[in-house]
Predict the 3D structure of the following.
Amino acid sequence: MGSVVLGVGAHLPARVLTNAELSERVDTSDAWIVERTGIRQRHIASDGEKTSDLAIAASRRALEAAGLSGADVDLIIVATTTPDLTFPATAARIQAALGASGAAFDLQAVCSGFIFALATADNFLERGQANTALVIGAETFSRIIDWSDRSTCVLFGDGAGALVLRRGDDRGRGVLSTFLRTDGRMHDLLYVDGGPSQTRSVGHVRMVGNAVFRQAIEHISGAMLEACARADVPIDSVDWFVPHQANQRILDGVARKLGIPGDKVISTVALHGNTSAASVPLALDVGIRDGRIKPGDLVLLEALGGGLTWGAALLRL
Ligand code: UT7
């Protein structure tokens, strides 16, 4: 048995924050942000708009695309670093709102969270521990940004994406392979300087950007090759690459390193910025809804984030 993708959905908060507005808050410029990252704008949740609100909206779209309702879902895994509350899991609130059953829990692998959640759900389905899973990446990263730190505040945005996976025996379709890695020795390259146990606070994102950048190109490329090797698929037969949207220069660097044509890479970084665990399903949703990614296409997802964590997943839609 394996798991088949039935539907994808996404949701962004209405409020758009442009580079020009950020330039009035901190010492930066539209030219610097565009040249160094490719980002032009990001969406920001309004006061009171929670991670669960974004996730529920994205999930409803994914269920609609799958032709299912919340009552059909018996597993929810939410990849998030910005839960509504320290506990219960944001997934519990989402489960109640959708009328789903079974197990629902959050998973924390920062920007790689969606890939980790997808791999986890795939294992649950393969083992017969659930039948229909909602895999969600949802973030209100704006809540943990230090808005006076120009080296991080220009990078991130809010949003959510969701994917419906169903246990199925169509071995040619669905999740063909996954690859996950964590290297905790690089913990201090990208972290939040607060948390319940260490500081009794929420904290703000801190990043040694250029060191993470170098790690990203190397490990993302390796993970993509490994996911392809595990499925015995040559990388040049992949139809679409859906990367974590941290920086256009990382997308370009990885594509160059692996000889991937740029027009096979779905990029939303200009419009969404880095939405952490939400970025991969948001980009997948864009590629499907604008008609580029079609049923039957071979799609390679990848991400790297705090931990450091990284991974890739190969899907046949
Ligand atoms: O999603 C999780 C994974 N995250 C990533 O993959 C992010 C990886 N890192 C990056 O994308 C890039 O490293 C950044 C976009 C964060 C930074 O770009 P960079 O080319 O690596 O710049 P840098 O950090 O080496 O800084 C270059 C200069 C510095 O000034 P000095 O020291 O050379 O005078 C920074 O202070 O750019 C300065 N700088 C800025 N200038 C204007 C940093 N942020 C800004 C800014 N506006 N917003």
